[in-house]
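Aim 2 progress. For Myosin motor domain-containing protein, the working sequence is reproduced below.
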Amino acid sequence: GGAGAMPSASTLVYVPDAANEWAPAEVLGQTAAGLRIQRFLPSGAVAGPPEDLPASTPTLLQNISEGAAAQEGEPDMTALGQLHEAAILYNLRKRHATLHPYTYVGEIVIAVNPYCWLPLYTDELRAAYAKAGARQRGGGRDASAEEALPPHVYATSVAAYERMAGLEDYSPQSILVSGESGAGKTETTKILMAHMAAIATAHESSAGTEHATILAIIEANPLLESFGNARTLRNDNSSRFGKFVQLQFGFPTQGFDMQRKARAPLLGALSRTYLLEKTRILSQQPGERNYHIFYQMLGGLKMEKMKEYNIRRLAKFKNSSAYQYLRNDSPGVIEGRTDEEAFARTRNALEIIGVHDEEQQRMWQLLAAVLVLGEVTFEPRLDQGEAEGGKQAVVISKKPFHDESPLSVTETVGALLGVEVPALGKAMCERTVSTRGETFTVPLDESSASGCRDALAKALYTSLFDWLVRRINTAIGAEDPSGTRAGRWVGILDIFGFEHFKVNSYEQLMINFANEKLQQKFTADVFSAIQTEYADEGITWQQVDYQDNADLLQLIEGRMGIIDFMNEEVMRGTGTDDAFVSKIQAQQFPDTILGFRKGHHQGQFTIHHYAGPVTYQASGFLAKHKDALFPDLKAMLQASSHPLVHTLFASPMVSTGSAGAVVSSAPRRRGRRDSALSAATVGTQFKQSLAELMETLATTESNYIRCIKPNSFKLPAHASPSGGGAPTPPPQAVAGGGPEGSQDPFAMVMVAEQLRCAGVVEAVRVARAAYPNRLPHKTFVERFRHLVPASLVIAGEGGLRDVCARLLGHFALKDPEEQQNGRTRVYFRGGVLERLEGLRADNQAQSARVLQRRIRGFIARSKYVRRLSSAQRIQAMVRGWLAVQLLARCVGAAIIIQTLARALVARRVCEARRREHRAMVIEAGV
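Predicted structure tokens for this construct:
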């Protein structure tokens, strides 16, 4: 690209473009200041008149595709000679337009949502990929061209299963599925799980217990979706938490199919959850909803239960609300199911995991209590007491919950939670403070009391969510996940992608922290894969330094880092968000990872993540970091007569995280203990959970799936035959307007941003840091054979590799290390292939000039011959005409002469006769 030689005339390149990120262009020639180019639209149409680009403008070479790849794109992009952001972007565009949602980048699967139903998930296809096995991994490089199947997530699930189930050579597997909200992570996870379950039971005769286990595993997904998913502006069924599912398998046995593959029975599954979005419990943006379970319960509970719980049904009109915590709570249809139908499925799933009717009723009571808590209001105390800071102290209002209710709001909450109403009022309006030898109560003002109420609602819901995850693990987990029975496993990580909004808060910091940890592993895995490739190809190379994000992770999680300073401010009791920002600013971290805006933005800081800089608004950081219930509320809940509430809060509970975080529900290892307060903070616990997750992943062989949304309008890749919108497909599912219209099905700028956030672009950069360009031997020979004498292209015993060696020797590159001739490919350092392409372009231009000269000579000679022949024909015709004319004149003259001659003779005869007559007359007269 821009770092190499200037491209010569006729070279096809990509150039930066505001509307499409990169635009295809043709170099028309070089100018004194740079290049003169003709820019094109992604569709191939000319985009305006030629233009001049400065020499500093980066240019990237285009790939010249042949055959099916020219129309459909390359199924495995490692086959592209030029692999960079623009090449990836335009190859995916081709694949998307021709309804090929899956594309490989080596071992990585990129899944782009087509937004229309495709026949890609049939039993026949599942069986075909299972039969083909791990040879399909990475684009089927281990399979012949005839038997290679198209890219698919099935190839990933099969490869993971077979490598886990090996009789001798095996290792735990992990599949990391990532993408932004609505990109299809959850659906892809379900497809992977269902496929591995099908493979595990394909040849098993013991159908009873095993199939019951598989049914429970499959039904656990929609159950968690009911409690952890919600409708957002981007996705009707958006996961608002991350999860890591370990599918547990028994030791494998030799299969009885024709291929005799090892089969490991599926024994169970364990789930860990991360970062449940707690702010959604309290409020939602216009057009969004709270968690599905609230609407399912209100739409599906029988009327007598509604009356028993003293709650109301959903609002009858759109955009109306019966509850403060539920905005736009009109009934909805999610994935083809009404709230009532979804509730029936949720109840059935609860039955399958062993949560029967009595426990279910307790769950509905707790959820009803959360809803009614949102209706709690406060009024000034009659004794005019003052709260902290001199503000007016408050007590709970005793207004009725609704017109048909004999109970007040607090009485309803107390009855549902099994707590005394006075204790509830006291716990929400007062705070107990303990000092050395003294305990006293502090009245709360309206703002603090409201915060206390909301904290209680969040604690109830997130504790219920954690309890549900534990119940699912108990029901479907193998007996001994670390012992002999479940000795093999495959982990599937479904976690949120990198986030960058106009306003970024604590939640985005934690999410991006997780993505930085995963990106570190991703980059290391990609680098390891390229090392293996170079070794297999037999080429020598030196260690290449690549940008590691260890310094950035140290900034967030290290000693004297962001989490440490938040812990310090929380432990002070009087700490503030501004003081926290001042402390990290005083550490003078390098500008390359941390920056601060000058002027009036004191509460902001910018972290330079791998996907780009993100500015965080620190307001509210400490409250979300601490996010703890007051001891009064904890004591009240621990004394509850409600069996489920008592269970949730009786023992030291797992912290319920922040307004936007629930830490892992899996047990933690014990390590060096911080102070009790700092260890209980959301950031500290999430850091520990993340460290455990990374330790677990480090023991596995990782597989990566990156889900991409091609547009934000759910536009299908082709027009729907019915004329209406196409339904969302089973696999994937953001984006802005398109480059050639405000609603392009493939929004280039948006997809490019997602590729960066997914780490694909950085991974490609790392993978090709040493040799950014490579060509298969056959392609290299066919492409450059015309630059060398024909004798060099004759294949000998060494085959194409020897031919390539002779070609490279003929080109006489200055530095032998600029290229490496591998076993199947030729590798080039940056700028080398561009120079060869320049020579090829010059050769083509020279050949074109010779061809043009010869063609022009042929045309001129042909014209001369045609003109000469025409002239001769014209001359003959003219001569003939002249001869005819001459003959006609001669004939005419002869006739005239004859006429004159005859007239003369006649006159003479006549004169003679006259003389004779006169003579006779005279004679007679005489």
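The longest strand covers residues 21-30. This observation will guide construct design in the next reporting period.
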